Amino acid sequence: MIARVSIFLFFFIIPAAAVCQTRSEQTGWAAWFHNTRLDRKWGLYSDIQVRTRDNWNGVRNILVRPGISYYIRPNQTATLGYLYAPTFPAPDITNGRTLTEHRIWEQYTVIHPLLSGALSHRFRLEQRFIERPGSDIFSQRLRYFFRGIQPLIRNENGFKKGPFAALQNELFFNLQNKDKLNGSFFDQNRAYIALGYRASPKFDIEAGYLNQAVKGPTVNTMNNAIQLAAYTRF
């Protein structure tokens, strides 16, 4: 049932977000996602991301997101974390002043088999402390994410090595002070498709296309991003 809802969101919510007047961007994203298992119940999570401005014209965002995880069951995890995210606007915006967002976030992740691969669902709640040129903003946001990985070569002993395809989508919803952001409950959608290679059970690398549809106060943004991502587990 969850998988069917996820597919519906992927194919119908994304086009709906692009109906209004929209400007297009071309960017590049690089990301490293890491999980460390400390013992049977506890672990550490982190991701570091770098995102460019439009047309790859310099760095726009850096995200550093550490967290601590509790393994409810082998396939269910709860995580609490913090995010540090400076934004470097173009020189003609905010006079080039760096604007920083801090977040506290809580999430629940569940993973289950799908065909010969796996499908994960993540529900994340964020408390956002957003720096703006005029005045700072506090807001809360809900995110729903699903990601499916399908090995491209069949392996009877489980997927430990080889090429794979990845398909994911994430929806963002403003829960608080949306009038100070874009005036809408819907914030953005990120759809992503990629090809990757699992070098070992501890390391994946992939490259793909990410479509980010952002609802703005007056004009929406359709960001076409090329993403390179690495995943480590140890």
Q: Can you tell me about this structure?
A:
The structure is a single chain. The chain has one helix spanning 2-17; strands at 22-37, 42-52, 59-73, 76-87, 99-114, 117-130, 137-151, 162-174, 186-200, 203-214, 220-233. It is mainly beta. The chain has an 11-stranded mixed barrel with strand order 1-2-3-4-5-6-7-8-9-10-11. A hairpin with a 4-residue loop joins β1 (22-37) and β2 (42-52). The relative contact order is 0.17.
What secondary-structure arrangement, pairings included, does this model have?
Blueprint: H1 2-17, E1 22-37, E2 42-52, E3 59-73, E4 76-87, E5 99-114, E6 117-130, E7 137-151, E8 162-174, E9 186-200, E10 203-214, E11 220-233
Parallel strand pairs: 1-11
Antiparallel strand pairs: 1-2, 2-3, 3-4, 4-5, 5-6, 6-7, 7-8, 8-9, 9-10, 10-11
Number of strands: 11
Main beta sheet strand tally, sense and closure: 11 strands, mixed, barrel
Adjacency order of strands in the biggest sheet: 1-2-3-4-5-6-7-8-9-10-11
CATH architecture classification:
Beta Barrel
Strand content bin: over 45%
SSE-based structural type? mainly beta
Protein name: DUF2490 domain-containing protein
Keywords: Signal
Pfam families: DUF2490 (PF10677)
Signal peptide: 1-18
Task: Write a compact overview of the structure shown.
The chain is mainly β. Helix content is 7%, strand content 65%.
List keywords for this structure.
234 residues, mainly beta, Porin, 11-stranded mixed barrel, 1 helix, globular
